[in-house]
């Protein structure tokens, strides 16, 4: 009986061990299979990145060569406009043959007879498409063509450019051929220590240039005779190339596995094919091979291996946190070091703008100021993204005015639009509440980023900000839609749109600037507020971005509240059709009796005969209308986005904020909205009795701050250290102190503690404002905790400076 029990126990033990071994074996093979799949994915990804970099460099180099040739030839065509006779034009073209890459050049009059220093005979090109296009005033660049010259045959692309006469009409055409071999240098860029090679093909797969011989003159024919690996196919590759997409494929060609990366050149439908053998990159996978050997060795002690993985994971996580903290500290320090000299740049710019400058000088100074603000925007984007990435970004929620937010956004957007022929307007839902609870700064940041993106890519037409909302389960969802008539977005770029540090239209973005972080940050902010951002776009027609964020309504007040007497009628003159539609919609929503006309003559005739109680039009039209009316009527100026409401004698409505303006129409009080949001030095109220102490270890920043405050006519003392500041406070009763943070020997926090411990009650209670380039939220919380009364970031914002001076000087002098 005992033996039977032992036998049963042994069988159970064997079954358990067998099951454990089987389980370990199955687990091992699953892990091994997953590893090899990871191995192949990593190998493919590494190769794709390397080939993508090479292909992009090649494409950039090739496009630069083509562009430079076109610019050079355009200059030649412009020069021909000043040469009177055809014979002298041909003589002049003789010298241009020395230009690099120009294999053939000639001139044809309107008759289409081509004459060239390259050949003795003339040629009739009057029926060629490129000639006809140039005669119509359009520069044309052909696909690859072959031309027989006197002493050789040349293949290349033909540039045809109109040559204009004195009245601006095309009197003839400059014809030039760039030798296709001129692009060979660009194609010779190789990767993987020279083991990669490349082809340049057209839309039909025909070979244009090569760095290595090909079995056929058509790349598609090559692909029809290879064996593709799993996940890749001839049809997908060909379809991608025909659709001008970039991508990678893997196939076996004559016993050699090869990666082929295809990149559209962006010219005439040409594509660059970069190829490298799969074995070439195997040397770069030593780390993966080592990991495989460790995995096989660890099979015998899988439990130890798992414990090791846990330990490694813990250490890696700890290191990542430490690296993230180091990166955040580095970025904060970088921001501080950049903001300190930028304070001098922006401050001196502000001071120069106060001077009597010439128009050209003022333009230069405005450029400096604009560039400084752009740089600060880039720094702020990087800091915000770093905080989001490290998980340290937090929302600060409080009650805020939606009207104030919209007014600020309008001013910022109008400033960015500048002189562009772009109409900006805001469409407000009548159900929007006046006050919301949430992080207004981050909601504003989303709006600024979306509107800034629209301004950047819209050169004409309109930009519209539509604000609406809905209540769900007690929460209010604020919906912000930005529509524009800009360049739009390609379908293949949609997935990259919200990626960090990516700009889908790099050619346009390089000229307008930006980090490529704005949309990525906006999406992260929306998701932190439990919302999202969606986009719709038609390439070449425009885009529409919609962001929805969760807020909470505060109170029952509506954002726009209009009570309009039914018997009173409003006549509106608006020549812009988009604005007409917006006004029509708003007036109908708020039940305002109205009539809108877009023709000035009809408008003036109608209001002179009709019985309208209010007339809303631009100042010029309003003046003409009032002179034609012989009865009492209330005139209201309709201000354009580029106009300033200050100085207007009549009541005014600002067109982008039309709904807000409607509220003021029945009021005797003149309500206007400043269009540009700019701070005018004439608005400063002098306070000569005030005594101010400026503390900064940087003499330049002291000088700038003192000069910026000069219009206030205050009594200003300066100190360049904490010790000097304490000494000054003990001797003088100051009304306000601006105190730098990072100073040697005694920093701002230490200096404040000494001041707050002075025996004189009045001296230790003096308001102290932190004046610093450290603008992180952590720093602001530190200053508040340490007892600072306010915060002034560098570079100094003159608007914020005015607010602080007026607030604390009034408070202190009560």
Identify the notable features of this structure and list them briefly.
single chain, 814 residues, alpha/beta, Beta-Lactamase, seven-stranded mixed sheet, 23 helices, 29 strands, 44% helix, globular
**Sheet of most strands:** 7 strands, mixed
Architecture of the domain at 398-551, according to CATH? 2-Layer Sandwich
Kindly report the average pLDDT value. Answer: 78
The CATH class label of the domain at 398-551 is Alpha Beta
Low-confidence stretches: 506-515, 668-678
Structural class call reads alpha/beta
End-to-end gap: 103 Å
Strand content: 15-25%
InterPro entries: CheY-like_superfamily, dCache_1, HATPase_C_sf, HATPase_dom, His_kinase_dom, HisK_dim/P_dom, HisK_dim/P_sf, Sig_transdc_His_kin-like_C
Domain Histidine kinase: 333-553
Modified residues (4-aspartylphosphate): 740
Pfam family, one: Response_reg
Care to describe what's here?
It catalyses: ATP + protein L-histidine = ADP + protein N-phospho-L-histidine. Among the domains are: 112 residues, 2-Layer Sandwich (Beta-Lactamase); 69 residues, Helix Hairpins (Orthogonal Bundle), CATH 1.10.287.130; 154 residues, Histidine kinase-like ATPase, C-terminal domain (Heat Shock Protein 90, 2-Layer Sandwich), CATH 3.30.565.10; 95 residues, Response regulator (Rossmann fold, 3-Layer(aba) Sandwich); 131 residues, Response regulator (Rossmann fold, 3-Layer(aba) Sandwich). Helices cover 44% and strands 22% of the residues. Strand 25, helix 18 and strand 26 form a beta-alpha-beta unit. Helix 15 runs parallel beside helix 16. The longest helix is centred in the first third of the chain and has 79 residues. The relative contact order is 0.06.
